[in-house]
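Fresh eyes needed here. I'd like your take on this protein's tokenised backbone:
***
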Amino acid sequence: MARLYLSLTMTPALAAAALLLPATPARADVDQLPPVEVLGQADDTTVRTGEVIEQETTGFASHIGKPELQRGGLSLGELIDRQAGAQVRESGGFGGYSEISLRGAGSEQVMVYLDGLLLNDGAGGGFDFSTLDMSQLAAVDIYRGSTPQQLGKASFGGAVNLRTLQQSDASKFRLSSTLGDFGTQKISSQISGTRGQLDGLLALGYARSDNDFEFLNDNGTQYNPDDDETQKRHNAAVDQRSALLKSGWRISTDNRLDASLQVFDKEQEIPDWNNHPAAAATFANRNWQIRTKLTADRFLSPAVNSATEIHLSKKKETYDDRGNSVGLGAQYDRNTTTTQGLKSYLEWVGENATSGVNLSLREEQYTRDDLLEQHSADESRRLSASLGLQSNLFFAEEKWLLSPSFRYQWFRTRYRPDETSALERNTEAFGKPQLGLKYRWSDALTFKSNLGAYIREPGFYELYGDRGLFLGNSELKPEQGRNIDIGAEWAKQRPFASVAFARLQTSLWHNEIDDMITRTYDARGIGKSQNIAAARLRGAELSLLVELINGIEVSTSLTLQDPENRSGNAAFRGKTLPGRAGESFFASLSIPLENWTLLYELDIQQERFYDSANLLPAKDKQLHNLKISRDFGRKFHFALELKNIGDQAVEDFNGYPKPGRAWYLSLSYNH
């Protein structure tokens, strides 16, 4: 706590020191990387029917724009982790499993979307951010708590919408490459163009890493330093490829047809908990997604717009531990998830109100094949339908916004553990309301508040999955809960003579969840999803951005939270939910130096535990990063980054260390 307090007291000192530095003219091509941008402040993509409009939302949101994504390093999770209220855990180095927590809710309770299409599927609880190439993204929108109706399904923590490059966003040609420690290499390219009413985009990416960083291995004896040994990480290499193809046809001023194909292929080695050199487990993830969307504005009436989309995707995961080096026995499994569906959004736009209807039909099929032929394949299938209704009502010259909404969900699940077993069926239906309120006190100051009720059914992977590191639990029940938040946003150009722009966001939240599903890990690092009787998530978040007229930027985010286990079990009641940091703080200072830009970052997380009983505390994290970059004209960009300068040992997952000190060199060309 003392270190966090020291860091907080340093923040105003950094800002004050920045005011005293010699003024340097701000340049448009300076590499400035503020971690948080309010949605709509510097949007990188064209907003179309069915997409979220910031002026019509009452929730609290953060925005990561295209400059941050293209120059933000190797990990999408790291960029998201810097936002207030958000925490991302990663296993190991580049390409390792990456999951999000929002306001204390786990990755299973955060809905992740790609261009408005839900990525959370029946196969797994939470979405793995390492299965996307962030160079193919134009923006990331993070909605904490309240989820916009345009996205569809909502949950306790909120939602993340990953927006891919649009044809109008991409450079006509872009090529970028990164080299770094531990055999890390990354190259990506983009090309786009238009011809008449047609447009298209192609983006390709390749990355690999040996991940053979050094770390201190305590050999599973935390309190016996005599057997500690510095070793290189074994069996942790990653190799991945990705492609994004998009095409569009502007049929008329009001009608447009879009199609896209996205492919991702990753192969990675899985180290065991004690870093044995003979470990040989591997995991392969191959997935593709194809979509077609028709946008028809002024549909039937000048005030009615519509967007209808059909989609088909397939994900194939192969886990190979035939040598029994990681899990609880020899395994060679292939998990396949096939998803298909229809999504339609219809909106009416009035003078002082808007209304929207969101309809979604979705079928998911999940099969698990034992390639060792120890038993027959099992199969799960889920058919779901959802209906969302929302109105946005503006009052008093649009100073007040009242946003009531309602979501109805129905799903039917079928599961057969093997060919000889009887088919198990389960049908559920539920409806949950949501209400948001926003008041614009002045052009600079806005107050917001939201409340809602939510429910989430367990996924196939939580129920039946088994990948060595994680075990299924077929006795899980749906979790239900309620949340409420309140806060304010202040943003102003030239609030003081030396300040070009300043923005402050702050909010408080309180969530109650019954039968919460959370993942716990034992001393070997093996995880299992479990229902706890109840959980209470409370906290506060704050973010601050100051841009000075001399080009200097100071940015900070702070999250204080109490994710409390309210189980009736005396061993767990009152304990902190595993995997959530009670205190997290991020700060950055960007200084233009002639033709160069110097960026310093500080990242702190404290009060973390690996298990429900809080017997396995995680070490506090305090990372220092440094980056120097330069733009050569408008075409070339160069950056040298030093990560974790203090070489601190960090483990987000028990027994799976992350890299220490590392360097990365990046070069990009735009035309």
Notes: Confidence is low (pLDDT under 50) at residues 1-44.
